[in-house]
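Table S7 (text form). Paired inputs.
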Amino acid sequence: MTEEEKISVLIVDDSPISREVLQTIIETSPDFEIVGLATNGEEAIDAVDELRPDIVTMDLNMPIMNGYEAIENIMAYNPTPILVVTTAEFEKDTNIAFEALAVGALDIINRPQIPDDMDEDIGEDAQEFLNKLRMLSKVGVITHVRGKLSRKAKVGGYQRSVQKLVVIGSSTGGPKALKEIFDNLPPDFETPIVAVQHMSDGFIPGLVKWLDSSSPLSVQIAEDGAQIESGNVYIAPTGFHLTIKKSGILEMVDLPPVNGIKPCADFLFESAARVYGSKVLAVILSGMGDDGAQGSSAIKASGGKIIVQDKATSVIFSMPQNVINRGCADAVKPITEIADEIQKQLTYY
């Protein structure tokens, strides 16, 4: 890769140690060039305007101006791919991180660590970080001025017997897409939803809290042995595959990752097809790879329906594209129309 082809990176972090860690990891790959370092949000805004990097790594908790405010400004005036780099164990940062997705950041990742022996291997965390930078640097972003979110009164869950089920698979770009769907389903939406969202370890609790805060539905982390109930949304936890047993019981399965992914949407989809048959509606949202494609084929074979997010509104179109390529998609819709499409498709069941 020539100098002209290298991916230019701006690192934004107020901690000298954190900046050094990210810089050290990035410099292990010839694919990247670090074009600048910033220590707060104001410096980040100026650096993006001057340097026009291909991608920005953004810390959140910084002096003068925090990362969220910087992202909001950058995406409004100089749209640039931004990867939020934070630590999942701090609840305040995870809450801000998901709000950062709402104003245009593309993804969130745990701050990577440098292994003791960098000469042998940079480590899985560092490799995941570099892979995210490569992938997201190629994403076309647009001006993103956040509108006010309407806060709707949440209603209690329903106890009626479950006859139909919605299952969702999503990855990069998924959190924002999930929020768009859940916020725009009506308070009396009865069909339960079970979703798999690929995320770095530790971020699912923050995601669930963020989604639940503005949705009229009850969004919660799926628990082993829980009975699926109408009016609820269940999000798979990190570290287990999520399946559905007979009578609508959720089950966590501790099997190896599939193509490096755990939880895997295919596990969920295939089990849903076995239990609910033609009463399953699957939704495939933005994401890298082909997770959900095999499961969509199983749902299609059982008589169920498939909705996929369109290319124009997907951050990464691979997951929806693979479902389309298999001939499984019954509807291809922009994210703003998927909540309505879900309700429309369910009327046919």
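Next pair, protein 2 of 2.
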Amino acid sequence: MGEARAAGAGAAADARFPVRVPDGLLAGEEAGHGDPVVLIHGFSFDRSMWDPQFPDLARGYRTIRYDLRGFGESGLPAANRDHVTDLVALLDALGISRAHLAGLSLGANIALAAAALHPSRVRTITLASPGLPGYPWRTPRPPEEAAAVAGREGIEAAKHWWLNHEIFRATQGNPAAREQLTAMVARFPAHQWDSALPAAPQLPPLTGFLPRLAAPALILGGALDVAGYREIAGVLAREIPDAERQEFADCGHLLNLERPAEFTGRLLRFLACYV
């Protein structure tokens, strides 16, 4: 497939790596030993969103986090490369045949799509604040609203609008989460809002796959998240055969940053059931 790891980026603790994939590279890091766990960040974020979880997970698992294509230190979007294809290429490059996947928002969508399209590569999925490609929203989807603002008013205006969207309202009373959110959005390259760059392929509709999913699923959501994401969490919990759901009270979209200890503990308990 043409992937090659950088010299010295083996399984050593806190090893940073670039993984070369067709039409680009993915930047990331890994730490720890044991069953592989891959952490997948959300839209407008980067792998640093997993700072609260990464060290604790690495004590018992081979833990990998990476920047999606078009985010963080990874390469530009490519018109013929989607995030699930990149994830499989990453697993191949790291010598991982099967992994636990944990994602938030866009990252959860990618984990869900990987479990649907490549079931032999996925042990479990943890879906935090998930969307559901192909599911009809009753209100505008927040990322699409942000893209429309960028088209009308420019990228900096869209970033300001995005930070103040109700999806992140719960962080306003949580200084640590708000600081991390603000820093990530400031770093966000916003390639997805640049009409001069190619658009990456969208994830396929997944609604029809849910009853056939084999991977056990943990679905986590915030009681203060916007209605669309709360509704989707309920759909996933009902339709995925082996699914459990937990809702975090007084918490919004950024569960792992708003309630880091509670989120990490819940994830670790779930993973321990499948070692």
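The longest strand covers residues 24-31.
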